[in-house]
Amino acid sequence: MLFELVMERVPGALPGAGWADAWMVSLNNLLFSEIFFDVIDVFRLGLAPDPDHRLGQVLIFLTRGVLSVAFIRVIVQLFRAAYFRAHGLGRGVDLLAALRTAAEERPGRGPSRGRRALGGARRHDRGSGGAGTGRSRG
Fold first, then answer.
1. Long-range pairs for 130-136 at CB < 8 Å and ≥24 separation?
2. Which tens digit of pLDDT belongs to each residue from 12-47?
3. pTM, whole model, 2 decimals?
4. Which has the closest alpha carbon to 21: 40, 60, 49?
5. Residues 46 and 25: beta-carbon distance below 8 Å
6. Three-state SS string across the chain, please?
7. 51, 15 in Cβ contact below 8 A?
């Protein structure tokens, strides 16, 4: 939409006129961004010609810069997510399942609360001197 508006309002700033040419310039910017590691630039495989007007050149430079920064941010986020998941940190870990497993593996502990709620023995029913056993601690 940006390129189409510039083509419409400033004739000659960008090559072409209309939606089709604006899409070609947009795709050309995507191809020349960091995603393809400058392969498109080296082999000169662009879809649209480079603009001759200074405004068009600045606009293309700025949009490619924004695309490159966005791509770098996405790559950094992917690497961070992979690192945290590999080290058992962050969103990649099911913390509730890990807590439940750790609670069930503790020696000397009875069943978890979920099992007690399903009919398991309660601590005070095993003669621990708690409420409901008839014994007093004192």
1. none
2. 888 878 888 888 888 888 887 777 777 777 777 878
3. 0.51
4. 49
5. no
6. CHHHHHHHHCCCCCCCCCHHHHHHHHHHHHHCCHHHCCHHHHCCCCCCCCCCCHHHHHHHHHHHHHHHHHHHHHHHHHHHHHHHHHCCCHHHCCHHHHHHHHHHHCCCCCCCHHHHHCCCCCHHHHCCCCCCCCCCCC
7. yes
